[in-house]
Every structure is written in C-alpha cells, then in structure tokens.
Amino acid sequence: MIYASVFGAVTAAGAYMMIPVPPVPITLQTFFLYLAAALLGARLGALSQVVYLLIGMIGLPVFAGGKGGMGVLLGPTGGYLLGFVAGAYVIGRLVDLKKDPGPVWFAFAMSSGTVVIYILGVMQLILIARFSINQAITVGVFPFLIGDALKIGGAVVIAVKLKSRLGADELKGMRG
Question: For 16-144, where are the alpha helices, taking DSSP H only?
C-alpha cells in the first residue's frame, strides 16, 4: 500500500510537468504510471492510479494544469484519467506473465497499456466533447505518440535497471 501511495503521489507530481496542448495536455503522468505498473504489478500498479484519482476527485489540484474535482473526470480528458487505472493493470499483468521480463517485453507491456489509455480517452472525447472518431484520434492520440514513445523508452531503461539492482525478494515485496 505504501508503494502504491508513493506512485500515486509521483503521478500527481507528473501532472505539473506539462506542455499545455488543448484539449489533452502532454504530461509526465504516464511515465510514472509505467514505472508503477512495471514495478508493482497489476493490482498495486492499478491501485496506485486509483489513489491518484481519489486525491484528485476530492478536489486537490493534482490533475494536469493544477485542476482537481469530479468535473475533470466527467470532462473531455476524464477518459484518459480513468484509462490510467486500466492501463496500469494491463501493463502490470503483462509484466507478470514473464518470469524475467526484458526491455522488449517491458516496452510491449507499456505500449499495450498506452493503447488502453488512448481507447478510453478517445471514447470520452467522442461522448463528452462530441468529436467524431477521426477528430478524437487526431487531437487525442496523434500529438502524444512521440512523447509516449520517449516516456516508454525512459521507463523501460529505469525498470530494467531497478529490476537488476533490486533482488527478487525486494521486487516481490514491492508487488505485495
């Protein structure tokens, strides 16, 4: 629980490291989500993102642009935030499938989780912002592909380094 809370907090910090691109800003939130899921596994990785969402839902300004409250989750970008929980679960689950995941597997898992986040984000843009599917993909996916690829690359490097430095027992302890 402590690790999930810590990763929830660093995800919140990642919201303040942003490039404001409307309607969905570019932030470092997903970078920390990738690390949480890869290191904590499916259950605790997803829980870390639930912690993050709960902090924001009670009104603390932890979402991109210093926003907070239920209105953000119900607004155009809320699907991405809800996707954080599902994406973290998918990443952690895929990492858990391999006894000794390497960089390629970490990258595959993180990319798969990102697709889940994009799907939920695009769906909410279609429902709430009333974008066509083409508009939603154009503004809600394409601007983020390069940045997400870079964040995945950085997260893979760190996850592999931490995996090699932490013993199996320490990683198991982090995963619950």
Answer: 29-57, 70-74, 78-97, 103-128, 133-140
**Chain segment 9-36, per-residue pLDDT in tens:** 899 999 889 888 777 778 899 999 999 9
**Per-residue pLDDT at 2:** 82
What are the b/e assignments for 43-80, b being 16+ CB within 10 Å?
bbbbbbbebbbebbbeeebbbbeebbeeebbebbbbbb
pLDDT value of residue 167? 60
61 preceded by cis ω (within 30°)? Answer: no
Hunting for tokens 């660093």 — which residue is that? 10
pTM, two decimal places: 0.90
> In sequence order, what are the beta bridge partners of 19?
26
Q: Cα separations (Å) of 35 from 31, 41, 82, 89, 147?
A: 7, 10, 17, 12, 16
